[in-house]
């Protein structure tokens, strides 16, 4: 079901642990307020070099995985293009969620889709989760396209639940079961 013999490698990207030095690639992207609003649900305070270094030191080599598992996303040539995390994991319910951020200059090149397929495969086929729950703010068109391309089902809308940039926005809810993921994977393999 995968494009190589290495589990963490897809058609375009490889997932790897963050390293403490990865902060350099991200510092400039911290000034992308639109992306931060869409990902975090609001503006964040400005980031300093010291803050970025501390955050990446915390994430390096998977650090504490009790709340989330953070992966760096790099091209097959080794260029860091973003990050993806698995979080909100419930062994009792068999569910998890994710967060993904592809750096601005690398968006719309299929890196996010490939990274998310790897993370979903890990969640469903290795950790035995049965469903991935997700949400994004209604104006995040890139995230909406990504969810739909990977077969996520629209499950609802939380009206006026996110306040940012001076106004309220709806939160869109998505879900993907293991069976839906497997069906989407088999269809995407047939189209290659």
Can you offer a commentary on this structure?
This protein is an alpha+beta fold. The chain has a single domain, classed as 3-Layer(aba) Sandwich (Aminopeptidase), CATH 3.40.630. It contains six helices and seven strands; from the N terminus they run E-H-H-H-E-E-E-H-E-H-E-E-H. It has a seven-stranded mixed beta sheet with strand order 1-2-3-4-5-7-6. It is globular, with a radius of gyration of 16 Å.
Give a quick set of tags describing it.
Aminopeptidase, 192 residues, alpha+beta, 7-stranded mixed beta sheet
Short description:
The protein has 192 residues and is an alpha+beta fold. The protein is 32% helix and 32% strand.
Looking at the overall shape, the CATH architecture is 3-Layer(aba) Sandwich
What is the topology, as strand order, of the major beta sheet?
1-2-3-4-5-7-6
CATH homologous superfamily, by name? Gcn5-related N-acetyltransferase (GNAT)
At CATH level 3, the topology is Aminopeptidase
What are the segments in which pLDDT stays under 50 over at least 5 consecutive residues? none
If you compute it from the alpha carbons, what radius of gyration comes out, rounded to the nearest whole angstrom? 16 Å
Distance between the termini: 12 Å
Secondary structure tally, helices: 6
Q: What is the succession of H and E elements?
A: EHHHEEEHEHEEH
Helix-and-strand structural type: alpha+beta
Q: How is the biggest beta sheet arranged?
A: 7 strands, mixed
Mean pLDDT: 88
Q: In total, how many domains does the architecture comprise?
A: 1
Number of strands: 7
CATH class call: Alpha Beta
Give helix % range. 25-40%
